[in-house]
Design a protein that fits this description.
The structure holds two protein chains of two kinds. Chain A is an all-alpha fold. Chain A is built from 17 helices and two strands. The chains are: A mainly alpha, B alpha/beta. At the A-B interface, helix 1 and helix 7 of A face helix 2, strand 7, helix 3 and helix 5 of B.
Chain lengths: ~475, ~270
């Protein structure tokens, strides 16, 4: 009865407060804008993926047509574009683009999907530098501050709105004098505050979840119910953390102005300062090698390789007898020499990128270690992971593409070294990329720790609020 | 009981915070106390705000606590409301200790502070609906609640007005309406007529009279000697946290009450 009465009263108070209605209306507009932004980005990715897959089919068809024509007596356009040459068929002309489909909930969380590549052209020249380039030209401002998507709204704006609606949930009652009359009734401050916050939570979380479910409905994300559930659970837990924090601060029985100052300070520290500090610390403690270093290494290795092709080929065959397939031409062809040079460049690049990758891993480890300090970092990690736009899914994709590139080389390089020619009959056997996407269980396992810690922070704040509110009497 | 200097039946209070203390619940005539203080004391740090108060108020009785600011009147009300915890002694409502039966005791009381503060953006009716529901009377219909507001003296046309447009007297009437709706057995009033004009004050007293006639026990802290004499069945005079004297209002006149009060203030 109490809860229903408080909910009805809160609704009436809301309806009577024009400023509050305007704020909520603005929030609704922001939600719709963020959702539209996410949907547009997801649609763009879907179109890109479709175009890439069409490209794969068209390249294979063009090769097959040209090979058939040559078989029927036509001449290749040039010696260097002869599709029968394995370095042409396995090179740029016959390359296969490996694609990562947009995460099921990308419309809600753009996450890393505008930063990390979601498709790679794989051919015999694919090397480590390929994995450090993004084919998309993205607005650098977007990359810097992140896209204005639902995750941004949830992580940054939702807490602000929660605090705006709750910073004086109890102090206002005391300041306007209604607390004494309220607590002279057979109700506890704990119950009244809980009911008042429940109303606000229903309102705000309801709006966010409605926008989320609408986005999921529009983009067909309901095919991954586990991810949807994880997304919703994280939004609810994160929002409740801020509500309960507001209740805790209110239970300290200070003025509304004091509450507002403390809570905005908490938002600033937990949502802005700590994540930024952890980010800066990771960059300072484990700086990434400069991209220029990679380009320089690539250029130097290329020059050296061109001058020492024969020597390199001999060393390559010594290191990779399996690639020779037992057929090593007495007089190595141009293709074989070129391949030896390419391989030497690749090895040099691996040295540079392995350093880069090691530093990056150290950065991630540091962030992962200290993310527990900020509920915002924890929630963001789970949200983008649930959306399928987190680091882990992209890392999994990249590692599968690396394996696929190796498979591709194993298919074409022996023929290059043997200076063999290929024909249309090999086309069906050319490796095709098939992504083994992560399972829902993988996502759930990764989300377990951060979500549990977020829940623990919620419980901690809840206990503080419960104890504090238990001490609230009408004569404070 | 020690006879006072006056010819009137006052009871000079001796402080006997001992097991042999008079049991206030025994009111005679088979009546039991609805509001009862037993050796009730409250310290705020080194300050003794209330010192061993013994008090018993029966149904249909209006007990007025008189005394200067800081005498312990509001502290007494707050102890009965459970807003502060006693340092020692007990505040009982219908025999239940307020400290250990918060919910049950609040179910039986209504409270009207010096300023009845309501939700300004809501109407009197909406405020009553809310507080009545908190008091366990959520089933009352808007029509019934409107009748209660009218019974409490509010104009029918004012019922749906926003409280921000109400005078203090109108807000006090909503406070009374909350008490009526709750069907409280006891009413705790903390200087309820302070700042009201004489007419509003008189109307308020009439409402208290009506509740008294229905058997409600009333404890009212007030500075208004005239109102205490008119409304109260007994008055207790407090000073420095102590109940220094207690007298029935039927046996004394206004002038007598004022004289006794001033005498105690100057002792």
């Amino acid at each position: 009865m109490t809860a229903r009465s408080v909910l009805r009263n809160e609704w009436r108070l809301l309806m009577a407060d024009r400023a509050l209605r305007i704020v909520l209306g603005l929030f609704a507009v922001l939600l719709v804008y963020a959702l539209a932004n996410g949907v547009v980005w997801m649609r763009f990715q879907e179109r890109t993926v479709e175009a890439v897959q069409t490209g794969n089919v068209e390249r294979t068809r063009a090769l097959a047509d040209e090979l058939a024509a040559i078989e029927n007596g036509a001449e290749p356009a040039s010696r260097f574009a002869d599709p029968r040459a394995p370095n042409v068929m396995g090179g740029a002309r016959g390359s296969h683009t490996a694609v990562l489909e947009p995460g099921p909930l990308t419309a809600l969380a753009v996450g890393q999907s505008d930063l990390l590549p979601y498709y790679y052209d794989v051919n015999i020249y694919t090397n480590e530098s390929s994995f450090h380039q993004n084919g998309e030209v993205e607005n650098p401002l977007n990359l810097m501050v992140g896209r204005f998507d639902l995750t941004f709204v949830v992580i940054y704006l939702l807490p602000l709105l929660v605090l705006a609606l709750s910073f004086n949930v109890l102090s206002e009652e005391r300041e306007q004098g209604t607390l004494a009359l309220t607590l002279s009734q057979p109700v506890s401050a704990r119950r009244v505050v809980a009911a008042k916050l429940a109303f606000r939570a229903l309102l705000l979380v309801g709006m966010v979840l409605a926008a989320s479910l609408l986005g999921i409905l529009v983009t067909g994300g309901f095919g991954s119910p586990g991810r949807v559930l994880l997304w919703c659970a994280t939004v609810v837990t994160y929002a409740l953390f801020w509500f309960v924090l507001a209740a805790w601060v209110n239970s300290l029985r200070r003025s509304s102005a004091w509450n507002a100052t403390v809570l905005v300070g908490a938002w600033l520290v937990l949502v802005v300062v700590l994540p930024a500090a952890i980010n800066i610390a990771s960059g300072l403690l484990h700086p990434l090698p400069s991209r220029v270093q990679m380009v320089t290494a690539q250029r130097e290795a290329s020059n050296e390789a061109v001058n020492r092709r024969s020597e390199l080929l001999a060393r390559y065959l010594e290191d990779h007898p399996e690639m020779a397939g037992g057929v090593v031409a007495e007089e190595p062809g141009l293709g074989a020499l070129a391949w030896a040079a390419t391989d030497a460049v690749n090895r040099r690049l691996e040295e540079v990128t392995s350093e880069h990758d090691a530093r990056r891993a150290e950065q991630i480890a540091l962030v992962r270690r200290y993310r527990f300090l900020s509920p915002a970092l924890l929630a963001q990690e789970v949200l983008i992971d649930a959306a399928g736009t987190g680091d882990a899914r992209f890392a999994g994709f990249q590692s599968q593409v690396r394996a696929f590139a190796e498979q591709w080389r194993e298919f074409f390089v022996p023929a290059i070294l043997a200076s063999e020619q290929m024909d249309a009959s090999v086309l069906p056997d050319v490796p095709k990329f098939r992504l083994e996407d992560e399972e829902g269980a993988d996502v759930a396992r990764r989300a377990g720790v951060p979500l549990t810690v977020l829940g623990a922070l919620l419980v901690l704040a809840g206990v503080g609020a419960g104890v504090g509110l238990g001490r609230v009497r009408g004569a404070d | 009981m020690v006879a006072s200097e006056t010819a009137y039946p006052t009871r000079e209070i001796e402080h006997m915070n001992t097991p042999e203390s008079r049991h206030p619940a025994e009111l005679g005539n088979g009546r039991t106390a609805l509001l009862e203080a037993r050796g009730l004391s409250k310290n705020y740090g080194a300050t003794r705000a209330l010192d061993s108060l013994d008090l018993a108020i029966a149904p249909g009785e209006v007990y007025c606590l008189l005394g200067p600011n800081g005498a312990g009147k509001t502290t007494t009300i707050n102890l009965f409301l459970g807003f502060v915890a006693p340092t020692s002694g007990q505040a009982l409502i219908a025999g239940l200790d307020v400290s250990t039966h918060d919910r049950e005791t609040k179910q039986r009381i209504a409270y009207i502070p010096e300023q009845v503060m309501l939700y300004r953006n809501l109407s009197g009716l909406e405020n009553l609906e809310y507080f009545a529901a908190l008091g366990g009377k959520g089933a009352l219909t808007p029509a019934r609640l409107t009748d209660i507001l009218v019974e409490a003296g509010l104009e029918r046309s004012a019922v749906d007005q926003r409280v921000s447009e109400y005078s203090k007297g109108m807000r006090q009437k909503v406070g009374i309406a909350i008490a009526i709706a709750k069907e409280a057995d006891a009413l705790l009033l903390d200087e309820p007529t302070s700042g009201l004009d004489p007419q509003a004050s008189n109307e308020f007293s009439e409402l208290i009279e009506r509740l008294k006639d229905r058997g409600v026990a009333v404890l009212m802290a007030t500075h208004d000697l005239f109102r205490a004499k008119e409304t109260g069945t007994r008055v207790g005079i407090m000073r420095y946290g102590r109940l220094v004297t207690e007298l029935g209002t039927e046996e004394i006149g206004h002038a007598d009450l004022e004289r006794i009060y001033l005498k105690h203030m100057h002792d």
